[in-house]
Design brief:
By secondary structure, the chain is mainly α. It has a single domain, classed as Globin-like (Orthogonal Bundle), CATH 1.10.490.10. It is built from 6 helices and no strands. The longest helix has 21 residues. The protein is globular, with a radius of gyration of 15 Å.
Length: 131
């Protein structure tokens, strides 16, 4: 039986497992290796804070993910299929590891975030994907 998302350690497991899928992914992995050379030792703690705040309302994240993703979009057009794949991998990861109210809430929030980003990014001029 899977467990509920209960604490920061669970968030870390979720984020680490998710990005282990994202990095080699043929649809979205290149954003993290070719579009931007992500410094994982810096990026992952930011994502732990982001998702811990999303799930538990800790107030531990103060960044601006919309600005960052608009910049990514301007470098290499982010399309619906990129967001769809991100959601698919995120939901798959949550479902493999967890169950319960917080797990469902995390998936719903991820969908909401992706939807808002797609709406906002659609208003920014895109460059053709060169990868």
């Amino acid at each position: 039986m899977k467990k509920e998302i209960e604490n920061r350690d669970d968030v870390i497991l979720l984020v680490d497992t998710f990005y282990d899928k994202v990095k080699p992914d043929p649809v979205i992995g290149y954003f993290f290796s070719k579009v931007v050379a992500v410094h994982w030792e810096k990026h992952l703690p930011v994502m732990y804070n982001f998702w811990e705040n999303i799930i538990f309302h800790t107030g531990g994240y103060t960044g601006n993910p919309m600005r960052i993703h608009i910049g990514l979009h301007q470098q290499s057009g982010m399309k619906k299929e990129h967001f769809d794949r991100w959601i698919q991998l995120f939901n798959e990861t949550v479902d493999e590891l967890f169950e319960g109210e917080k797990a469902e809430q995390a998936k719903q929030r991820a969908l909401s975030i992706a939807t808002v980003m797609q709406i906002n990014i659609a208003q920014v001029p895109r460059q053709e994907n060169i990868y």
